[in-house]
Design a protein that fits this description.
It is a single chain. This protein has about 375 residues and is an alpha/beta fold. The protein has 12 helices and 13 strands. The chain has helices at about 30-45, 75-90, 145-160, 175-180, 195-200, 200-215, 240-250, 280-290, 305-310, 325, 330-335, 360-365, and strands at about 5-10, 10-15, 20, 50-55, 60, 95-100, 125, 140, 165-170, 220-225, 255-260, 295-300, 320. The strands form 3 sheets. It has an 8-stranded parallel β-barrel with strand order 3-4-6-9-10-11-12-13, surrounded by 7 helices. Helix 1 links the parallel strand 3 and strand 4. Helix 1 (about 30-45) packs parallel to helix 2 (about 75-90) and helix 3 packs parallel to helix 6. The longest helix has 20 residues, at about 145-160. It is globular.
């Protein structure tokens, strides 16, 4: 099987099994003009061969904005900007999946004037400000506030559908709010949202159910799920993640992308073609064996041979990547031509002068 073969994903037929994984572009999409800026990025990705473009995470509430430039899709001007993004993507022949998220305790404190949502921020599952790494500080969510955030997920999922996107993906990885509820390391609650696996999974289960009801039975609904986190935290593991994923499927999930949790986003690894690739693939295989929905593997994919081998082995149904697409929007077409990715995964794409995500390494090299 080739990564360039069509693949079915939650009712969508993708032209290829190589997906642009969600990447925070850091463009707020507050207007049609900003929508045009993001649309140009997506058009380049689609024309470059991406089978599906998953957007950078969209905040479901202002309290869940990880940074000021994290977009929302609530106001009329925001919706107008996103409609332009989708229009341009579809004109280019592409498919767009909107990723929705709440950063929880990993959000930066913003000016009060920026907090136009229903909650003040940041908010968190359990306040853990004194830990040496990954502090999760903020007001501990009340039961009523949790219910409000679940409702905000459903409203945002519906907005994704209404502006014309082709699917929606719930973020349950990378230490954000969904992941914070799941992990016994970050979830120290003793109420119905904590302690047992059933209680820790309750938040994302309710989010999946609410989103499914909001978008209807036929709209593709996925999740990016943390399968593991660093061993020193002794927290979330595949032994808990797999049964939780089975519950999410029963609640209405159509596809799943397997990633990491706290400290498991291995972006600093110096990955190269045929060296250090596909670090989550063994985990994706375990989920593929346990679930009856399409599984996407992410994590350092660079070479066509490794991608095709991953698909041929049955470990996953599709593969996704982020940083190679930042470096080279035409990454898939380069692979078709027998070229390797130049992305060295040095995270310079997050160190741009204007804050917009792009490959600084390539810019410096071309000067």
């Amino acid at each position: 099987m080739s990564v360039f073969d069509p693949v079915e994903l939650g009712g969508l037929t993708l032209p290829s099994a190589l997906i642009r994984s969600a990447t925070a572009e850091r463009i707020s999409v507050e207007s049609v003009e900003e929508g045009e800026r993001l649309a140009a990025m997506y058009q380049a990705l689609i024309e470059g061969g991406a089978g599906l473009v998953i957007t950078g995470h969209i905040a479901v509430d202002a309290s869940g904005k990880v940074m000021d430039a994290m977009p929302q899709i609530r106001s009329e001007s925001q919706r107008a900007g996103w409609k332009r993004v989708v229009e341009r993507a579809h004109q280019a022949g592409g498919l767009i999946c909107g990723q929705i998220n709440h950063g929880g305790g990993r959000c930066y404190a913003m000016e009060p004037s920026l907090l136009k949502g229903r909650l003040a921020g940041p908010v968190c599952v359990s306040s853990l400000p004194d830990l040496p790494r990954d502090p999760l500080d903020g007001a501990v969510l009340t039961d009523g506030q949790i219910e409000q955030i679940i409702e905000a997920y459903a409203e945002t999922a519906l907005a994704v559908k209404e502006v014309g996107m082709d699917a929606v993906q719930i973020h349950g990885a990378h230490g954000y709010l969904g992941n914070q509820f799941l992990s016994p390391w970050s979830n120290r609650r003793t109420d119905r949202w904590g302690e047992t696996l059933e209680n820790r999974a309750r938040f994302l289960r309710e989010v999946v159910r609410a989103c499914r009801e909001s978008v209807g039975a036929d709209f593709p609904l996925g999740m990016k799920l943390a399968a593991i986190e660093d061993e020193d935290k002794k927290g979330w593991t595949p032994d808990e993640a797999i049964p939780a994923a089975q519950w999410f499927v029963s609640d209405g999930l159509d596809f799943i992308e397997i990633s990491g949790g706290f400290d498991r986003n291995l972006a600093d690894v110096r990955v190269r073609p045929d060296k250090g690739e596909a670090w989550y693939l063994p985990l994706a295989r375990r989920f593929k064996e346990a679930l009856n929905i399409p599984v996407i593997a992410v994590g350092g994919f660079r070479s066509l041979a490794v991608m095709n081998e991953a698909l041929d082995s049955g470990a996953c149904d599709a593969v996704s990547a982020s940083r190679p697409f930042i470096c080279e929007p035409d990454f898939p077409n380069r692979l078709r031509r027998g070229e390797n990715s130049a992305c060295g995964c040095r995270n310079l794409c997050l160190m741009t002068p204007d804050g917009v995500t792009r490959c600084v390494f390539k810019e410096r090299k071309n000067k």
